[in-house]
Structures are given as C-alpha cells and as structure tokens.
Amino acid sequence: MKQRILIVGTGFAGLWSALSAARQLDLQARDDIEICVVAPQAQLHVRPRFYEADVARMRAPLDALFAVVGVRFVKGWVTGIDSEGQTLTYRDADQNEHSVSYSRLILASGSQVNRPALSGVEHAFDVDSLEQAEALERHLTGLRDLPDSPARNTVVVAGGGFTGIETATEMPARLRAILGEQAHVRVIVVDRGAQIGASLGAQVAPVVAEASAQQGVTWRLGSSVSAVDAGGVTLADGERIDALTVIWTVGVHASPLTAQLPAQRDAHGRLHVDRNLKVVGLDNLYAAGDTAFAATDDLGNHALMTCQHAIALGRSAGNNAAADLLGVAPIAYSQPKYVTCLDLGEWGALYTEGWDRQVVLTGAEGKQLKTQINTGWIYPPAAVRETALAAADPLIPVVA
User: Fold this and answer.
1) Fold agreement between 3-112+252-337+383-391 and 116-248
2) Fold of 3-112+252-337+383-391
3) CB neighbour list of residue 121: distance below 8 Å, 6 or more residues apart
4) What is the pLDDT of residues 353-370, one digit of tens each?
C-alpha cells in the first residue's frame, strides 16, 4: 500500500504543511508517497482580515497550487480520527462516510470562537469564520433600510483582545460608509480588563486608547455581557445597551478533533507537541497551527493562535512528518522572533516587536505595514512549483 501523509485543514497551517511536505519529498526525489489534504474547500480563508468590509475577497483558491506541487485534495468534513488504527473518517458533500488510512497525520484543523452558554448569544455575530463574517456584512448593509435610531447605529463588541480591538476600530468607518457620514454611530467595547487594551500590554494600551478616543470608540471596562437579545445586551452590572449589532470576540478554542486523541491538551484544547511538532505520546501524528501547544524558543514562550505562528508551524510540521517517514533528520520548530501588527481603523495601525511588545511603528507608518501584511505577505505563493516549494522552507523566518 502506498504511504500517505494526510493533512486535515486548508488554513494557514494546513496549506504550509502540505507545501513543506511536498518540498521535503522533492528534496529526496521521492514520488512514491502521497500527500493528501482533507477539508471542506480547497481555499485558504484569510481569517485575519474578517473584520474588514468586502469579506468575500478574503479567500484564496488552492486547486492550482496543490496541483503543481503534487498534493491531492479531498473535499470532506472530518468526523473522526483513530490514532491507533491510523485511519481518518470524513463525510463528503452527499453525506456519505468514507475512511482513509495514513502513514503520518498532520492535524491543522484550526480553532473556533468560544460561544458560552449565555442567554441569547445566538443573536451575536462573530468574525471567526468566513460564513459568520459574511453574515455580519449582510446584516450591516441591511441597517441602511431601517429607521434611524440609537439601536440601529450602535455596535457592541464583546471582548477587548486583539480581534475585538481590530473589529471595533474598523467599525466606525464601516458604519458611516453604510449609514452616511452624518450618522451618529456608536461603537462600544465591553471588556473585563481594568484598562483599555490591557491584554496587549503596558506599551500597547495607551496607543489603543488614543486610537479609540479619536474614532469615538468607547469602552465599558471591568464588565462583561450577561445576556444578549435581538435588541441589545445586558451587562453584568445590569446596564442595558440597545444595539442591533453585537459582535462576539471573546476567546477561541482548538478544533474539537483534538479531543478525539488520547493526548495531553492545554486550556485552549491544543495538543502538546515536542519540538518537531509530533504530538506527545502519538508517534505518527503531528499538530500545527491552532491545534498545537508548541514552544517557540527555550525561554518559555509558546506559539499563539495567529497566522504568524501557524505559517511557521505548518512549514515545520509538513517538513518533519515527511522527514520522519523518509528516515531523514527533522528540523526542530523554532520561532524566536515575535511581532504584533494591530489594525486600528482610520487612525492607523500599531507594530511592535518582542514578547514584551516594544512599540516600533504607529499611525500611518504602522498602517502601511499592516496593509502589506494583509494584502500580500499572508497570501499563498504563486502556483509555480519551484516558487511554492522554495517558500515552504521551514528555516524561512516569519514576521507577519
């Protein structure tokens, strides 16, 4: 039976796992091992941009790219993983169940936003998936057909972390583009922190506060949403905010597929992996991206659930899964450089370096870099075999 490297997911980690595995097979001049990717679509959904308008543009087709590097794509929804039997089950578009074996499996099935057992939370939108981001965009566009009212003109963002900040600071311009420049729009961030942008550190917080104030984004600090309904939210202290638009950005959890594996997981459901990204205790299984709890260096830092880390994790996982199968030396995952590039709407953007987030660029300069990242750096390489394989080298540093 032909050996197979099976990859679950076409997000950043899944895409780069496939390309890097193909690169390693090419280096060893091996064409007797199949690389197969299973996912609902042969597309990269550019998740970091889902807070922006015109979200339909935030997808990149992968069919041609997979074809030129010799990766087989299978359209399906994974339903089970048998790590002992080394088989995976998936459901196709006609709801038929299939089983496929693997020699090495790379789990790169991503994560999803936390949806707590909260009254009315189903009324809240999110920017976690393309489908939800598109639903939010349709909803926002439809606001122009409603009578002018404070509730129509108000957006509540639950959560003041990275995604919440980018979503909230982008929202005033999005609302004015729909409702008109004279509309009295309100954007309110509800966050448990004691300070605006506190979760991103002392240097970042005052910049976020300045950008928020300049754009009219207000914060309800030290608070949380206790209930959502079709007309707004109720906060934990009893305050009522009338808003037809509520966006949930409070935390993410790794793909439920991680729970099927007999392995240790962190508080976010991520699988503990060694420095080669092999799942601890499971010899033939690797994890990458948001499913992996991976050390980035020897200083105690771990990869975050971001595309910046997912790209490098994918390059390492794909290379090492293939190397393991071929009997060649792996390249330990290492990503000591950490940067942050936070979009702050019309105010600009903020770029920092290091785990302590030392501010390097702000305002227009930061926005220029953020635009380069969002519109170029994080997209797949061209569907040219040599270009794609070269880009998948696990030793290439990732700074986006």
Assistant:
1) yes
2) FAD/NAD(P)-binding domain (3.50.50)
3) 115, 228, 248
4) 999 999 999 999 999 999
